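Annex B. Sample input.
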Amino acid sequence: MSGLCVGVSVHVTEDAHVWSSGIHQNVAFLVMCLRAMPQVGRVLLLNGGSCQRLPEALEFDRLGAELVQPQAVTHEVDVVIEMASKLPQAWIRRVKARGAWVVAFLVGHSFTGMIEPALFDPQRGIGLVNMEPDEVWMMHKDLHSSRSLVQTLLRAPVVEMPHLWAPSFLQRQIDLVERGGGRFGFNPRKRARADNGWAAAIFEPNIGVVKSCFVPMLGCDAAYREQPWTLRHMMVLNSVHMKDHPTFNRYATVLDLVRDHRASFEPRVTVPETMVRLARDLVVSHQWENDQNYLYYDALYGGYPLVHNSPWLQQRAPGFYYPDFSASEAGRQILAAWSKPEEFWKDYRRDAQAFLRGLHPEHESNVRAFLQRLPLRRGQVMATRSAA
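Annex B, continued. Sample output.
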């Protein structure tokens, strides 16, 4: 087959699930983008994990990319994108000696990913990418705190790349959930004021300071204190492991929503399951230098009111923005969303869909942005490295 052969690293384990980590979708969307390029002949998934097959729950069967051991394609790959798994250093050196172009695609928050485990949990951490990439790709969300760190550490240029998203995995989950009854998507007429307010969902993972539930909880409580009829319940996902922690317990029990028994603390549940089966109306979110987030896109896909503090999103999409750590303003934005008339939400959903189309891996601008970073054709990899 003519065209570039591109390998993307994955970490495949027996229990891998498409919703267990956002990096699985990162990989899938990149593969979709690469396969949309006529200049790319083959896309391979370079296995850095312990499982020799793609688990059904990973939902990679429709990507059209074969799972291979890196050593089996040493003489075939033109471009190696190390993304979800660290590949053997000796193999990286070997393919580079053959002329392959090696990219480190860092999709997580590199600064906190390296620093937090070293400070607080020495037994947990992320493996650094190989130390000899030709180029490092990062997304806008990580540049402020991590660009200089990574560029200095890896001695390679850092290039900003688009954040990709498609509704394919989300829609499959929606279809599954809706079989049990209910419908995904905000309905301002059905979930009206007669129902004693909206039910809010907070989905932050609570595994680090980058995305946590603390400010959204305060924002919900601020709105509830001001206008109690606007919120009937606050559900904090990914928080059940913190319920008995003394600091978190004291933090939560001062909130009026908790005191009035209008709050619950739950394990991890997907967005469609939460919004449909648990009848949520509103998503309240918070990030710290991580302002591109699949959660935003999932909520906007359903047309749900989204209260967030992402400057990047504020400039591009509908939603209800509050700055930085301003819990009081988050509360005001919840009330602002509550006050919108029914006709507002039709335009909101239309604008959200227009924004999401621009994130699709096969959107022309995204395909072009990634194509510009690849060697133009087989045989030009060494020339590309020399020019760089």
